[in-house]
Amino acid sequence: MRLAFLGPVGTYGERAAQRLARLESLAAVEFVPQQGIRSVIQALAGGDCELAVVPVENSVEGGVTSTLDALWEHPDLAVARALVLPIRHALVGSGPLEAISEVLSHPQALAQCSQWLAEHLPEALQLPTSSTAEAARLVRGSRFRGAVASREAAAEHELEVLAYPINDVPGNCTRFLLLRRGEHSHHGAHASLAFSLHSNRPGALLESLGCFARQGLNMSRIESRPSKREMGEYIFFVDLELPEGSEPLDRALADLTPLCEHLALFGAYPLTNLADDEAAH
To answer: Measured between alpha carbons, how far is 138 from 104 in angstroms, rounded to an integer?
Structure first.
């Protein structure tokens, strides 16, 4: 079984993919790194891989927009499981901290460490890369370049850990989704869906959200993304906490469907929160 993740080796995405594979009790998994989130999802949608793992939300920076957009473009993909992974960034490199004039990393990682970087490396140029592990690879051997990455990535690329942890919020964590092709489950503790409405009129969104409230379904997240068709037209992404059984979700979807131009249920699924495990210890 082939599982695509945001590469190269050493990313938080790889760590999440390995943990999700264990949670699903998958044997003989081949982990296939990809360049960019869209490439991860395309590897699954195009049949090159049977599974894919993508980040969907960070507790500091919010939704990962490229993942949300790609899910909307591929409604045939289903969420099988979710994982909340604690994120602890390090500044890694081959030279001393005081010599660093360029800091490379994924844009989300740079944003999650913006205060630390402003305080300790205020003159350093920040350069975006496709992943934290790719940033670690690019700074190897340079005395003036550093990367925001994991300590595992530092070990993989034989770099020194110059500072740790450097994320601005101690409880920083990212939610990852395990995706597959096929049927969308209606059974699980959480569900994710997205919809667009027939028209932009007063009360339209309130009316649609009432479908969840009437069934006693709590929204754990709602986020809008532009439809990319015209100004003022949006797609709404919603995560729900589900009680036992699929009936409340089924009834909510039945009420919601006539209000929507398009409705995509990405599935109901279990969620494992490693941040809670870390806090308990």
So the answer is: 8
Say what the pTM is.
0.84
72 with 197, same domain: the answer is no
CATH code assigned at 155? 3.40.190.10
280 belongs to a structural domain = no
Residue 215: which domain range? Answer: 190-271
Statement to judge: residues 45 and 177 lie in one domain: yes
Read off the pLDDT of residues 65-90 as tens digits, 9 standing for 90 and up.
889 988 899 988 999 999 999 989 99
Report the alpha-carbon distance of residue 192 to residue 184 in Å, rounded: 10
Inside any domain, residue 208: yes
| Number of domain units in the chain | 3
Q: Count the helices and strands in the chain (H runs, E runs).
A: 10, 16
Q: How far apart are CA 209 and CA 217, in angstroms?
A: 10
At residue 59, the 3 state secondary structure works out as coil
Instruction: Please check whether residues 199 and 263 belong to one and the same domain.
Output: yes
pLDDT digits (tens, 9 = 90+) for 215-268: 999 999 999 988 777 766 789 999 999 987 789 999 999 999 999 999 999 999
Helix (H, G, I), strand (E, B) or coil at 42: helix
Altogether, the residues listed in the chain come to a count of: 281
**Long-range CB contacts for residues 27-30, cutoff 8 Å, separation at least 24:** 28/1, 29/1, 29/2, 29/3, 30/1, 30/2, 30/3
- The 8-class DSSP code of residue 76 comes to T
The answer to whether residue 168 sits within a structural domain is no
Burial class for 281, CB neighbours closer than 10 Å (0-12, 13-18, 19+): exposed
Q: Which residue has the tokens 């949300």?
A: 68
Q: What is the pLDDT of residue 277?
A: 56
